[in-house]
């Protein structure tokens, strides 16, 4: 029997297709079995065991920041208190006040020059002024019974899905191991603290007991006639304190008097831009004749350098003409805006940070034939200057780790 070539070709194609189908069917179970053998994803690493405290012995500072490595492996932290962020709850009925340094003072990334390695048990301790953070109108939130919550570092990034690559930071705490056994932390949070309360006032109708009084001692009986007569009237004519001395000099409580004040807060980008406005006011009830000039002013500078410094105006005494004096009515004032770079040496503002500038005035100039007011006085409150940039860095020394104090065994 003769078989056509077309039929043979068709048969060969059918066999080939069937073999391919069988091979693919046999391959599917093998592929699924191989997928099952894939290694499961490793469990997430435990977080770094670091703890932060904020210690505030007084309302206005200085306060202390402490970061301790409580884990079993060394960690790396940015030892830079400028990374703090404070949240002050002064009134439960109002929103909390957020106190953060401006971008010009706060590090934008990880400050490599402040990198510090903490061995297990070691700590980093830094003292800081809370008014550097709660500046301007936010400073009013720092009061008795206010609750302070603090964070250190950076906000974690907001991600909707799991990232394909591990994050690169910057981190507040990270491992120093080549193969990390702990997960890094974007930020640290300290337990909330309560600022000290104000002293409780003594009630008006309460009289303190004498120092040697016994709580169980009962008061002696008082005669009804004596009790009805007030102590202020009894023996008032016979009391030597009731009558003023014959040679006493009367005091004019309505006389004019000067009071000095200055700008509360000043934000300065550089030392050459620090400008303080000083105001002299007649706080009395009568007018006075005065001659006030900017060169009479001097300033006390308390800053990050430590020791207070002084910059003086022209303190030389001189006689001014009569038309240099003017009458300052009761309640009236005069002000001067002083660029401190023009009166103070440059070395007084060499570091960024918080400065307290206290203004004083020495108005001792006289004029013949004129009854003038002469005085030397200082402002009651200093001007707080927050300086963003200066010639020297914010920190003058590299950070250091603090080891825990050794525990001594008790003696015999």
Protein model, in words:
- The strands form 6 sheets. Strands 12, 15, 16, 19, 20 and 21 form a 6-stranded mixed sheet that branches.
- Mean pLDDT is 80; it is low at 7-23 and 198-237.
- This protein has 412 residues and is mostly beta strands.
- The termini are far apart.
- The protein is built from 3 helices and 21 strands.
- It has helices spanning 5-36, 224-228, 340-343; strands spanning 50-55, 63-69, 75-78, 84-89, 97-100, 115-118, 123-128, 147-153, 174-175, 187-194, 258-262, 265-268, 275-282, 288-290, 297-302, 309-311, 326-328, 333-339, 353-363, 375-378, 383-387.
- It is 10% helix and 27% strand.
How do you describe this structure in short?
This protein is mainly beta and 412 residues long.
Topology (elements, then pairings):
Blueprint: H1 5-36, E1 50-55, E2 63-69, E3 75-78, E4 84-89, E5 97-100, E6 115-118, E7 123-128, E8 147-153, E9 174-175, E10 187-194, H2 224-228, E11 258-262, E12 265-268, E13 275-282, E14 288-290, E15 297-302, E16 309-311, E17 326-328, E18 333-339, H3 340-343, E19 353-363, E20 375-378, E21 383-387
Parallel strand pairs: 12-21
Antiparallel strand pairs: 1-2, 2-7, 3-6, 3-9, 4-5, 4-8, 8-10, 11-13, 13-18, 14-17, 15-16, 15-19, 19-20, 19-21
């Amino acid at each position: 029997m003769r078989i056509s070539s077309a039929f043979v070709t068709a048969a060969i194609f059918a066999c080939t297709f069937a073999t391919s189908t069988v091979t693919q069917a046999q391959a599917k179970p093998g592929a699924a079995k191989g997928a099952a053998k894939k290694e499961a994803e490793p469990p997430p690493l435990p977080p770094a065991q670091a703890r932060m405290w904020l210690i505030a012995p007084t309302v206005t500072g200085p306060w202390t920041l402490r970061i301790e490595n409580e884990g079993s492996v060394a960690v790396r932290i940015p030892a830079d208190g400028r990374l703090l962020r404070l949240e002050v709850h002064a009134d439960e009925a109002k929103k909390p006040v957020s106190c953060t340094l401006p971008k010009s003072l706060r590090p934008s990334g990880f400050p490599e020059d402040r990198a510090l390695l903490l061995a297990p048990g070691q700590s980093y301790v830094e003292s800081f002024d809370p008014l550097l953070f709660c500046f301007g109108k936010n400073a009013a939130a720092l009061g008795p019974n206010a609750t302070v919550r603090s964070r250190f570092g950076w906000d974690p990034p907001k991600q909707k899905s799991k990232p394909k690559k591990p994050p690169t930071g910057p981190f507040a705490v990270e491992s120093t191991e080549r193969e990390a056994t702990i997960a890094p932390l974007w930020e640290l949070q300290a337990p909330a603290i309560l600022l000290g309360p104000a002293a409780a006032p003594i009630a008006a109708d309460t009289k303190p007991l004498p120092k040697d009084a016994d709580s169980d001692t009962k008061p002696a009986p008082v005669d009804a006639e004596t009790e009805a007569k007030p102590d202020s009237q009894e023996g008032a004519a016979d009391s030597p304190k009731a009558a003023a001395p014959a040679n006493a000099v009367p005091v004019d409580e309505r006389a004019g008097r000067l009071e000095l004040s200055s700008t509360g807060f000043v934000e300065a980008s550089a030392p050459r831009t620090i400008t303080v406005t000083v105001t002299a006011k007649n706080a009395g009830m009568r007018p006075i004749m005065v001659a006030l000039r900017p060169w009479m002013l001097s300033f006390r500078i308390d800053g990050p350098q430590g020791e207070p410094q002084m910059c003086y105006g022209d303190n030389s005494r001189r006689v001014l003409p009569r038309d240099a004096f003017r009458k300052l009515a009761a309640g009236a004032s005069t002000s001067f805006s002083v660029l401190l770079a023009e009166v103070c040496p440059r070395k007084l503002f060499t570091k960024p940070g918080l400065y307290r500038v206290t203004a004083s005035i020495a108005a001792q100039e006289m004029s013949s034939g004129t009854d003038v007011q002469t005085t030397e006085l200082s402002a009651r409150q200093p001007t707080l200057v927050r300086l963003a940039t200066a010639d020297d860095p914010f920190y003058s020394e590299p950070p250091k780790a603090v080891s825990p104090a050794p525990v001594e065994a008790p003696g015999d």
